[in-house]
Specification:
The complex is a heterodimer of chains A (233) and B (205).
Chain A (H helix, E strand, L loop, with lengths): L8 H4 L8 E4 L9 H10 L4 E4 L9 H7 L3 E6 L8 H8 L4 E4 L2 H13 L4 E3 L13 E4 L2 E6 L4 E7 L2 E2 L5 E2 L8 H7 E8 L1 E2 L19 E4 L15
Parallel strand pairs in A: 1-2, 1-8, 2-3, 3-4, 8-11, 9-12, 11-13
Antiparallel strand pairs in A: 5-7, 6-7, 9-10
Helix pairs in contact in A: 2-3, 3-4, 5-6
Chain B lengths: L1 H7 L5 E4 L18 E4 L3 E5 L20 E8 L2 H9 L5 E4 L3 E3 L4 E2 L15 H7 L2 E5 L11 E2 L12 E5 L3 E4 L6 E5 L5 H6 L10
Parallel strand pairs in B: 1-2, 1-5, 5-8, 6-9, 8-10
Antiparallel strand pairs in B: 2-3, 3-4, 6-7, 10-11, 11-12
Helix pairs in contact in B: 2-3
The chains are: A alpha/beta (233), B alpha/beta (205).
């Protein structure tokens, strides 16, 4: 019987080695799998390369991983936020490396990894600092930049509902990077708020087919806390 | 500015409003207008901010502020969202700017200051991928320098990508060369506007 359910986040992440590349879903706090980032801190892996849209908000999640000194490098599109102080401090002190990637290139490079694409050309970033040193080519009359996929050892994502095959649905904009990261990683760990019987998810509405998911952890539902923007005075 | 941008967006358009000042454009679509707002984090058909106490932080915009979904709206993942932006499916994107050059070059993501934390987000994808990129910005910096310049001195977001600029003083079409003034605020002469602009302008036809 196929059963991807794992009893706890700790158990799901027990084998993450030092130096692993770990994709973490989420855009700000929406879709950020806090239960998994907490478990990763407890687990103790170091020298991690973290792939996320941002570089941590406030004190939890990726910010807590950074603060604990576990992160060697961040690959993201938008590190600077109102509450990214842990990243800001480490970056200024030269204690964390940053690969800044236009958000669409980040998404497409992750997608390409999952889809087995060796590299692709895109006009985004051409002529800017972020394309410096990259191969360019004129295609259809436009200059385009060669971009390579981003593969990961692990993807940690937050979904809403799942079944024992690993089929997933998400909740509103918390979906964001989840589906593409699930495909790009060797081992994808998804949290869900609800595990349903096989066949209970509407097959027309499954967003991530189970073959992209290796481990499923049920966690309690908590309202997502806002972060990342300057609150009105 | 925001009202003028909203008035110029045709009904039925799919529009992405950048974070910061362009967000205000959404408040100026009056009743009876049907414009579909796209948010890069995976929403089409984005609605206004929810009532106080109704915020759900799983439903946010690109600026990470809570929003709502209009009937007909939908959610999708990031690669689909950026395929919409990069694949030419967004009719108009409205972005803020540090500088816009007369040739349509845009600088809006980094001032290049040493020690500054860089952050680009979806700006390069939008600037390059939307059918039309409009910029909404003050005409001058706080120090009184033109933001519309001969050549951008700040790091570029995209080359030759800006179609139109809306400022507090004028609307300027960059798809015509030299750039043509489409509108000016009451009481401002063309010569005065030209003096405050870093590239040569064609007067209003």
């Amino acid at each position: 019987m196929i059963d991807k359910r794992v009893a706890s986040a700790a158990q799901a992440l027990a084998d993450v080695p030092d130096g692993a590349t770990v994709m973490i879903g989420g855009f700000g706090t929406a879709g950020l799998p806090d239960d998994l980032t907490d478990a990763l801190i407890d687990q103790g892996a170091r020298d991690l390369v973290i792939v996320n849209n941002n570089a941590g908000n406030g004190e939890r999640g990726i910010a807590a991983l950074l603060a604990a000194g576990r992160v060697r490098k961040v690959i993201c599109s938008f590190p600077r936020q109102a509450d990214s102080h842990h990243f800001d401090r480490l970056y200024r002190a030269g204690q964390v490396e940053l690969e800044l990637v236009p958000q669409g290139n980040l998404a497409e490079r992750i997608r390409a990894a999952g889809a087995g694409i060796g590299a692709f050309y895109t006009p985004t970033g051409h002529g800017t600092e972020l394309a410096k040193g990259k191969e360019v080519r004129q295609i259809d009359g436009r200059w385009q930049v060669l971009e390579y996929p981003i593969h990961a050892d692990y993807a940690l994502i937050k979904a809403e509902r799942g079944d024992r095959w690993g089929n997933l649905t998400y909740r509103m904009t918390a979906r964001n990077f989840g589906p593409i990261m699930a495909a790009a990683a060797r081992i994808t760990v998804a949290t869900v708020h609800e595990v349903v019987e096989l066949g209970a998810l509407d097959p027309e509405a499954v967003v991530t087919p189970g073959l992209f998911v290796q481990r499923l952890v049920q966690v309690p539902r908590r309202a997502t806390q806002g972060a990342g923007f300057k609150a009105a005075a | 500015m925001a009202a003028r941008v909203a008035a110029d967006i045709p009904d039925g358009a799919v529009v992405n409003l950048g974070i910061g000042a362009p967000t205000a454009v959404a408040n100026h679509f009056g009743a009876g207008r049907e414009v579909i707002l796209h948010s890069e984090n995976g929403v089409l058909g984005m609605g206004p901010a929810p009532a106080l106490g109704q915020e759900d932080y799983d439903l946010i915009n690109a600026g990470k502020q809570p929003v709502t979904l209009r009937p007909g709206g939908c959610f999708f993942h990031h690669a689909d969202s950026f395929a919409m932006m990069r694949g030419g499916h967004i009719d108009i994107c409205v972005l803020g700017a540090f500088q816009v050059a007369g040739n349509g070059d845009l600088a809006n993501w980094s001032t290049g200051e040493p020690g500054a934390i860089p952050a680009v987000g979806g700006a390069m994808d939008l600037a390059t991928g939307a059918k039309q990129t409009w910029v909404m910005t003050d005409h001058l910096t706080k120090a009184g320098e033109p933001k519309l310049v001969e050549r951008c001195s700040y790091p570029l977001t995209g080359l030759g990508c800006v179609a139109r600029v809306y400022t507090d003083l004028a609307v300027i079409d960059l798809r015509q060369q030299p750039p043509r003034v489409r509108a000016v605020v009451d009481g401002l002469s063309f010569d005065e506007l030209q003096r405050l602009t870093g590239f040569a302008l064609q007067p209003l036809a």
